[in-house]
Structures are given as C-alpha cells and as structure tokens.
Amino acid sequence: MFRRLRRQTDFSAEVQAHIALETDRLREEGLDESEAQAEALRKFGNRTTAEERFYESSRSIWLEDMGKDLRYALHALFRTPTFAITAILTLALGIGANTAIFSVAYAVLLRPLPFPDADRIVTLYERLPGGMDESLSAGDYPDYQRQAKSFELLAAYRGGPVNLSGRNRPERVPGAVVTPNFFSVFGVQPELGRTLTPQEDPPGGVLVAVLGDSLWKRRYGGDPNIIGKSILVNGEQRIVVGIMPPQFQFPEKTEIWESSRFRVPDHPLRPMLDESTNRGTHYFDILGRLRRGVTVQQAQTETTLIAGRLKKLYGDDEESDRTHVVNLHDDLVGETRSPVLILLVSVGLLLLIACANVANIMLARGATRHKEVAIRGALGAGRWRLVRQFLVESVLLACTGGVAGILLARIALGPLQKLMPANLIPGGELTISLPVMLFTLAVAGNAGLIFGLFPAIQTAKVDVNDALKEAGRGSHGGAQATRIRSALVMAEVALAAVLLIGAGLLIGSFGRLLSAPEGFNPERVLTLQLSLAPAQYPKPEDRVRFVNGILENTRNLPGVSSSGIISRLPLLSGNSTRNVDIKGRTPPGGDIAPDYLVVSPDYFRSLGIRLLEGRTFTERDSATSATVVIVNQATAHHFWPGEDPVGKYLKIGDTKDWTPIVGVVADVRQHGLGETARPALYIPYTQDPWPFMAVVVRTSMDPASAASAVTAAVHQVDHDQPVFNVRTMDEVVSSSLSPERFRTLLLGAFAGLALALAGVGIYGLMAYSVAQRSREIGIRMALGAKPGRLRLFVIGQGLKLAGAGVLTGGLLTIPLTRFLSSVLYGVRPTDAPAFAGSFVFLILIGLLAAYIPARRATRVDPVAALRVE
Amino acid sequence: MTTQEEKERLNLLQGTLDLLILRTLVFGRQHGQGIARWIQGVSNDELLVDHGALYPALQRLEARGWISAEWGTSDNNRKARFYSLTKLGRKQLSAEMNRWRRLAVAIGNVLGGGEVEV
Asked: Is B7 touching A (CB cutoff 8 A)?
C-alpha cells in the first residue's frame, strides 16, 4: 500500500537540472545568458506549483485519499440507508455474540490469575491408577515438603465452609484451613495486619484467622480494630490477624483463612486429633511455587520418584506411586475448557454466516453501482483505488457493526452472567475488558476484509465502456457473479446446518437429562443444609440429640408431611465412600467402594425414594442397637447379581462387625442427572452421626413458603446454628443442570440466529434474481407461461440452494460432532433426529424465503417489465 | 524563435502526453528537458510541451511502473534524472499506439477521408 517515496529534495534537484539544461540549449540557440535563463524559467511555468503537485502525488496522498475514501464511504452509506442498516445490524449480531462469548472465554480460560508469577503456582496431586487425582495425606505431605527440590515451597490447605457466630446473626461462609506458608505461594500481601507466620505452626499455638475483604466489610463493617480481636469460627475462638485484599479469594471465593492446630490442615471430622502420622486418609490439597526455570513436567517427575519411595516404605496396595503436578490455572479451568471452546467455535460460525450475508448484499449493491464505478474509472481512478474505496466502505460498516456489537454484548452480559453456572469463572466477573475490546476490534476489522474484499474486487472489475453504455440499467452481474452469490448462500446454509445440528444434539441431550429418572420425587420438597461445629457438638450423642430435635420440630409444622436428613444431598458435589467386604468374596464386577450416606428413617419417604425390598430404618435402629444397612439397587446388582441381598451381611470400612442388609431402595442419581447411579450404602444417622447434613422436608403446599418456618424450627433447637442453602428440591435439580442449560440455551440461540440469517440470505438472493429477471419473466408470461409454474421455478431455485447447503452442512458436521461428544448425554454425535430435524428446519426456511420472491415474480406486469428495457 | 511564437500551436489532447513520453523513450534513456525538446522538434514545433506539466506526468508513469528513473550526466556534463522505458511500459506503449491509430482512423473516416476541403 505504501510505495517507496521519492524525496522532495530529489524532485527539486530534477527541476533545477531541467532549467539548467534548457538554459544551455537556449544559449546555443543564440540567446545571452540572462535572457536564456528567464526564458527557461518562463517555459517551465510556475516552479512552486510543479513542486506542490509532486508533493501531493507522493507524500501525503495516501492519507489524504484515505480521508476522501472515508468521506465518500460515509456518503455512499447514507445514500442507501436500508442497505447500511441491514448490514450493520447483521454484523452487530455476529460481532456482539462473539464479544459476549469471548468475554466468557477470556474470563474462564485466558485471564491470568491475579497473582505475581501465577504461572509458577501449581497443584500437586497423587495419581490413582484409574487416572483420578487424589488429595494428600497428613503423613505424606511433610515428606514431599522435605524432599522435593522443584518447589520454592509447598503449602497445604483444606477448603470448606465454616460457621461464624457470636455478635451477629450466625452465618455460613466459605473458608479454608491453611498452613502458615499458604500466602507465600501467591505472593499477595494483606491489605491490613499480617498473614500467618511459622509461629502459628507448632501444636498448641494460638489459633488465628485472616479475613477476606468482603467478609470484613460485610460482617465487621470494615472496622480496622477487628485486628487482634477474637471471633467465633465453628464455635471456637480465633484471633483476627489480617485482612486480605478483595481480589484474593482462593480457593473458590474463600472469605476466611484459619491457621491449623497441627502442621497440616485439620481433619474435617476429627479436628482435635493429630493426624500427622496418618498416611491413609487423604483430605487436603497441596499448592506449590515452582523454582524459577523448573517445569511442571520436571516437578512431576521428581515428586513421582518421591511417591514411589513413600509407597515402598509405608504404602499398602491402594496407595498411589505417582503424582500429578498441574498448573493452578489449568487446574481451575479443568473441565470447563471444552464447553467454552464449543461455544466459541459456534459463535465464530455465526459470524461467518453474518459475513456471508453482508458480502452477498454488498455484491448485489455492487451490481447497481457499475455506473458509478465506470465514471470514477473514467475520471482516472485506478482499479486498486476503487477496490480500496469499497474496502474502506466495508471496514467502516464492520467497525460500526463492531461498536453496535459491543453495545449488544454489554446488554447481553447481565443475563449471561445470571445464566452461567456459578462456579464457571475462577474468581471474577464478566466484563468487556481491554483484551475483549481488542479482540472485538480485530474481529470487526477482519470481518470487514472477509466480507468486503471479494465484492470490492468484483465491483471494481467493470469495463468502463460497457457500463457507461448500459447506463446503469438493471441487468448486470452476469453468470459468474450469480454463481458466486449462490455459493455464498449455500455456504451460509451449510454453516447454519452445522450449528443447528449441534444445537439439536445438545437439546436432545438436555431433554434426556430432564427426563432421566432421578430416583426421587423433587416436587414439594424443601431442603436446607446444616453443619455442626465440632466444638459445640463434640460428642455423637449431642449431634443425635440435635437432629432428633430438628426432625421433631419440623415434622410438627403445619403443612409438613415428613422430614428427614441425609449426610449428602443428591446432586450436590462431594462424596464419601467406604470399602466393603462381603464375606471374603470378590464380586463378579470387581471391588468397588460404594457411596456412604447417613440418613434418618424418614429420609426416603421425604424425598420420595421407593423401598423395593425389606424395610426402612425405624426409631429402634439406635446407637445402642445392632448396626443395620440399607443398600440401593446398584449395590444389589453389583455384589449379589440375581440374588435378594436382604439378610446378607457386609463389613463396612474399618468396622469389625458384620452388618445385615435390612432393605433395598431404588437408585438415586446422587452425583448428577447425567451420571448413572453408583452402589450406595445407607446407614442410620444414630449409628454414625455426621456433623454436616441436609434436611429434607416434604410439604403439602408450596415448599418455598415453608422456608422461614423450617429455619425457625432449626433455630429453636440451636439459635446459633447457621442454616444455609435453603432451596426447594426443584431448585437443586435445576441448578445442577445449569452448565448444560447454559450451553444448550446459548447454542440454541446461535442456531436460531443462524437459521434467520440463512433465511435472509436465501430470500435476498431470490428476490434479487427475480428483480434481475423481471424482463425474462415478463416475456414468459406474455408468452402464456402459467404463474404457478413460474412460482414453482423460483421456489425450486431456492430449495436447490437450501438442499445443497444442508447436504454440505451435514457432511461438514460429521467430523465436528465428536468434539461435542464430551458434553452429550444419552445422545450419540450422529443422532439421526438431530440431523433430520435440522434438515427439515432449513428446508422449510428455504421454502419460506423463496416463496415471497416467487409470489412477487408472478405479479410482474409483462408490459411494464418489457418497457423497462 | 520569433516564428514559433507567432504560430498557433496545437494543444495536447488529454492523455496524449503520456503516450508521447513513452514513444520518446523508445530511442533510449532521456531526461525531462530532452523529452520536451524532442516532442517539440519531431512535431515540427506544432506540439509544445508545458514543462511544468511534464514532471507530474513523468511522476505518474514512474508510479505505474511504465518508466524507471536514475540520476546521470547529460551530454554537456550536467547532472540530470534520466528516464527509460520498462518492459511494462513497452507493452503499454504498443497498446496505446494501437488505440490511438484506431481512434485517428475512426475520426478521419467521420471527417470524410481527410480529402475534403474545409
């Protein structure tokens, strides 16, 4: 675009030389020196003007032309407002959708963690043979810490919500118990006070807490004097030593960090016990800061060697002998990567469709501009100059579309954030940040080139004479342009087909999820969660008494038909398992550790879980009576295929007793509607009273309306007990589906837009070609062609386009759908209904889009059509 | 000299200057003043090139890649910028000449074979 420019001094020198040469010549012809010089100057004319002209033609001309092009483009767009608005709106949709999804992708996948040198922060797991990552044990952690040279330091933490009580209303906040070096891993300074020091480490030290900024402001009114004061955490005293800045919320929106009693994070169920020699219980996570220059791979190799040594020294068969070191950001992104990438690709396809559409209307518009092009060509505008002019127009369109797109994205971001699964973003909000803006700018610019370049070249390729001769009458474009426009529309339909099939697959999969048997009845059920602080309820009897109290209080509420508790509510994350022994026998399907769930007798009735065999628990199954267990169908099938398990005996975990099975209940989708039920054991809560639980209350009215009465019933037993996550079971089900709903809705929306754009594309092309051929149609009608046949002909053309596009799209999709398979449930990537449905949809749209121009075609007045020429 | 000035000279038709410049350069490289002089001489002083308009034209042709330029020394030992025809320029010249001849013939035909007394 920029030529190597000749310098003006060079040009001046040339003019000087010319005048000297001319003077010489004139002198030879007989003039004297002064006469010759005057004559040479006169003949040259105005030297300054010449130099000015030179200046114009080289140095500033590019910029100045650009300005002219811009003005001209603005003028041209204002002259055809319908075209401009259609194009800008189409682009705004495409670019806006891209901006919104990119801001999600940026927040989820790309935005660096807000810590210095965050790429050196890693998580260390032990790797189980099945490829699962496992937390570390209190016994192993110090060995890694001492032996591994890859890390500047290794810190341990155990995340988990805590109860805050005391002067204000009891509250449940996300917290973590951490080793003193935890904060050093991140290199983040407190905004007030200090973090933890090694003195906090030794057993018996003062237990302290660091507060998050949000908790400090919310609960303690931002009072700086809170430092040094004592607060009640899980019913125990903690001295507040510092406040962390707002952006520090690791892990997962944590608001309070406590020092631990021992050298490792406290065990959640046995906080008073020193676990430091226990190598069998894996319950906390490890963060490390890699030494400079050490790679994740090197760290993993080194720690795997350590794991192997540890297993040899202490391990049993189930102990892992490998580790898995993973960059913290990658670890947090985890499984959300592929759904977000799927959305990003989909929205990219949508933009391509929008570009194809705009390219098409630009081609159509170009066809009507031949005269203008010809005149400008005749006036000396070069071909490249014209191409550039049209490119300026399209980039201008794209940028306007981009600005409108950013506005659209801003509007969309609010609902998007609400729709998004809450834990999708590792700490942070959706915003249109600078990187997102830059992305949008790049997208808009490129879109302008993509949809603009071809029409520009096509339009500028005008034979000046031909165009002027025909003087701007309608019939240009030619066969080639029409072919190109048809190909564009076909490509559009194909891309739309890809999106539609993808959306169809996700919708089908979502439908399967919704109709999957949950194994329980969520209607008219209220749930809430409780967590008893070990300090307040140290003894099992205390916890049993508490549970008995709340069950009795809630059961007696008006409108409540039954109420029960369970240690882990179905569909919430987290799991506990126990190994079982079935009288020395290995089951046919291999050993498997069933889920371990503690329930009250009425739990099954309250959640509507069917009893299939035997009995449920009763009040008589108490702490002092013989242990009993109820299993689900999956357990029955796995351990006793084809047999009735009632009356059989199990040894559960470390217990010495053989426990009889007293009943079998239906399978529950404990770990998500998309997961098949695992074998599960249900234990009466009186025989193993867990400190955390969910209360499940079945009502005869709207369950949400019972919320405050049920909460009050709990507070009657313990007014300091935080009640949290009060939700109906329907809400629990619904929020467990939110990742699926998020991507299904979005992809569905993109597919809908794609469908509309493809329809507009077909319509535009058919309407244009009908307008172009009005003379031909007029002649045919004058010759007696039936309107019905003409209509069919036009519709047939539209259907041909749609059909070709759909077939191409179908073929394109087959290799693409395997990327979807990771997010599909119960639907194969080659699901016939999704393909067929999309085809039918697109063909119908093609039919509709072609029908309107077809009707218009038959309304052509033959006489008028002929007179046009 | 005086005779020249009294003559009513023909104005160059628009676009013909480029053609004449290209044609001049067929004989080899030449500087601007030489080109102007040559056109004037060959046309028997009928065509007078405005020296001020010559240079923008040269500039334009150079930009289009039809001619190239370099600094050199003239016969009488003066520094001057010499222009020569490029391959592309040669092609362009033959196309332009063709077109010009056709135009001339066509106009001649319209005006009546050139034999009619006016």
From this structure: no
Predicted confidence (pLDDT) per residue in A234-243, tens digit: 888 899 999 9
Model confidence pLDDT, tens digit, residues A676-719: 888 999 999 999 999 889 999 999 989 989 999 999 999 999 98
Q: How many CA atoms lie within 13 A of A279 on its CB side?
A: 19
Contact A231, A223 (CB under 8 A): no
| Count of other CB atoms within 10 angstroms of residue A796 | 13
Task: Say yes or no for a CB contact (<8 Å) between B78 and A18.
Answer: no
Of residues A20, A21, A54, nearest to B55 (C-beta): A54
CA atoms within 13 A on the CB side of A649: 10
- Cβ of B31 within 8 Å of Cβ of A21? The answer is yes
pTM value? 0.71
In a domain, B118, yes or no: no
Contacts of A15 in chain B (CB under 8 A): 55
Amino acid at A646: V
Same domain, A652 and A551: yes
| Mutate which: A8, A9, A18, vs B, most B CBs within 10 A | A18
Q: End-to-end alpha-carbon separation of chain B, Å?
A: 30
pLDDT digits (tens, 9 = 90+) for A746-777: 899 999 999 998 988 888 888 888 877 777 78
Residue B116 within a domain? no
Supply A405's token pair.
């797109």
User: Please, what is the Cα angle at A280 between A278 and A284, to 5 degrees?
Assistant: 80
Judge whether B40 lies within some domain: yes
Which CATH number does the domain housing residue B107 bear?
Answer: 1.10.10.10
- Cα–Cα distance list, A77 to A24, A70, A71, A74, A392 (Å): 57, 10, 10, 5, 11
Q: Which domain holds residue A210?
A: 129-319
Residue A124 domain flag:
no
Same domain, A296 and A186: yes
Which residue in A639, A569, A573, A658 sits closest to A607, CA to CA? Answer: A569
Q: Write the CB contacts of B61 (distance below 8 Å, at least 6 apart in sequence).
A: B18, B21, B22, B67, B89
Whether A701 maps to a domain, the answer reads yes
A198 and A347 part of one domain: no
The mean pLDDT value of chain A amounts to 85
**Domains of chain B: total:** 1
Please indicate, yes or no, if residue A691 is contained in any of the structural domains.
Answer: yes
Identify the domain boundary among A719, A748, A768.
A719
* Average pLDDT rounded to a whole number, residues B49-56: 75
Rounded distance between C-alpha atoms, residue A206 and residue A634, angstroms: 48
Q: Report the candidate in A283, A285, A230 with the shortest Cα–Cα distance to residue A254.
A: A285
C-alpha A236/C-alpha A242 separation (Å) is: 18
Which bin fits A559, alpha (ψ -120 to 50), beta or left (φ > 0)?
Answer: left
Instruction: Specify the residue for token string 């010009």.
Output: B100
Tokens of A193: 């006070």
Query: Please, which residues bridge with residue A668 across strands?
Result: none
* Euclidean distance between CA atoms B40 and A862, whole angstroms: 62
Is residue A600 within 8 A of residue A547, CB to CB? The reply is yes
Contacts with A274 (C-beta within 8 Å, 6 or more apart), sequence order: A203, A261, A262
**Side chain identity at residue A519, one-letter code:** G
With CB atoms and an 8 Å threshold, state whether B79 touches A22: no
How many domains is chain A partitioned into structurally?
A: 5
Complex-level ipTM: 0.77
CB of A3 within 8 Å of a chain B CB? The answer is yes
What tokens were used for A625? 């009576």
Report the pLDDT value the prediction gives residue B7, as an integer from 0 to 100. Answer: 43
DSSP A31: -
Q: If you measure CA to CA, which chain B residue comes closest to A16? A: B80
| Per-residue CA distances from A639 to A636, A648, B89 (Å) | 6, 10, 92
If you search the block for the tokens 């009893």, which residue do you land on? A611
pLDDT for residue A865 is more than 70: no
Identify the CA nearest to A777 among candidates A866, A846, A851: A866
